[in-house]
Amino acid sequence: MSKQALWSGRFAGGMAESTLDYTSSLDTDSAMVFFDVMGSLAHVRMLKKCRIIPDEDADKIIEGLKTIVSEIEDGSFEFDYTLEDVHTCVEYRLTDLIGPAGGKLHTGRSRNDQVATDFRMYLREAVLDTVSAIDNLVDTFIKVAQDHGETILPGFTHMQHAQPVTVAQHYLAYAFKLGRDADRFLDAYERMNKCPLGAAALAGTTYPIDRKMTAEALGFTSPTENSMDSVSDRDFVTELAFCASQTAVHLSSLAEELVYWSSQEFAFIEMDDKYTTGSSIMPQKKNPDIAELVRGRTGAVIGTLVNMLVMTKGLPLTYNRDLQEDKKPLMESLESLTQSLTIMAPVISTMTINKARMRECVENGFINATDLADYLVIKDVPFREAHGIVGEAVRYCIDNDKKLEELSVEEFKKFSERIGDDVYDYISIERCVERRNSIGGTSPASTDEQMLIAISELMAREDIVRQENGLAERCWNALLE
Predict the structure, then answer these.
(1) C-alpha Rg value of the chain to the nearest Å
(2) C-alpha distance from residue 341 to each of 270, 297, 308 (Å)
(3) Residue range 369-427, CATH number
(4) pLDDT digit string (tens) for 381-411?
(5) pTM over 0.85
(6) Domain range summary for the chain, segments of one domain joined by +
(7) Beta-bridge mates of residue 164
(8) Cα dist. 364→163, 205, 284 in Å?
(9) Residues labelled as active-site residues
């Protein structure tokens, strides 16, 4: 059989080489070859059961596809770049192996539903890998929190000293941010996990196919509901691009902070030598390059989301060739994000936290001012009035180069007669932290509760990933029997 495009019968001449070069998707969709064969195995088993093709031909196709699987696994399968996509490569190789019976594989399906199915299966695996990488980083933050429940540092708003918090509280914030990111991916996974196979080009098929059988065989929860929607919409791609973008934004925020904190001005942390680089001209330098690259690669991840939104905003029903361009950006986006998540975990776990420097900074900037206002409130001073009193006290301290806790009771009483000797215990840094024991607060008791919640959520996600990974493996093994 001459290697022509699957649709070549309509045309008197072949494609120009430049047309093939421009339209070929093989460089990208070759990454989906396993899933293409997996979908074909499910499809041919269904065709056999529904007696749409003879058993003898179906059995030949199944054995041929198993041979192709072996070739893919041992690296001997060759992608023919005179063909336009992975589906054509597989079909031609199948026909080379078993003869004309290979041409019956495509009965009752189109490349439109085939590629939509392949990509969903590919993305299921990619999403599970990304969620695992997120949760590994979450676990890292939880472990740092466990070791630093009483390490106090300044909390910031507007990059100004605000209130004292613990390192545990600070890094649990990232654990919960990233936990929501993982949840978003799993939510998108659930919506994506419906099977387009059998939708054919757009209108379904006249053959008596069993779409529920193929959906179950491939590990999907159900077939997609509408054949036109099945082949035309890429909202699952756009949704995953958003999930990746939001995760990348959270990582970029973390990276920005690590860059600041590792500077001499902050000196809150020092990154391990294994995860830093030097300067070609300045021998004293120790640069936080990994954090900077994580921050830098965020732009490309966000670009994928913009790409998908712009590409699909004006597409009419149903399939349009524009949709060929959905794969490479998202594949690269998820790969880049997963790499960033993976490298960030050891960056965090190996960095040195400078407790002494953090404590030094805590003792500057009147970080206990809010607590002094709260003290006045329990002395029956309205909070707005208390706010003004403390503001005056802070201004007095600035003018006299003092800290609030260094003022005498007599000096305090210049601002309010309600202030007594018990004020010093109330505005000590440790007590400022310990009293914030509301749900989600920074006290050690509160952060202990937060850790339990974060661990519980982490374990629940890990169970889901294990179950889904196990399901895919079971489906694959069953198809190869």
Answers:
(1) 30
(2) 19, 12, 23
(3) 1.10.40.30
(4) 999 999 999 999 999 999 999 999 999 999 9
(5) yes
(6) 8-107, 113-361+450-480, 369-427
(7) 154
(8) 11, 73, 29
(9) 158, 279
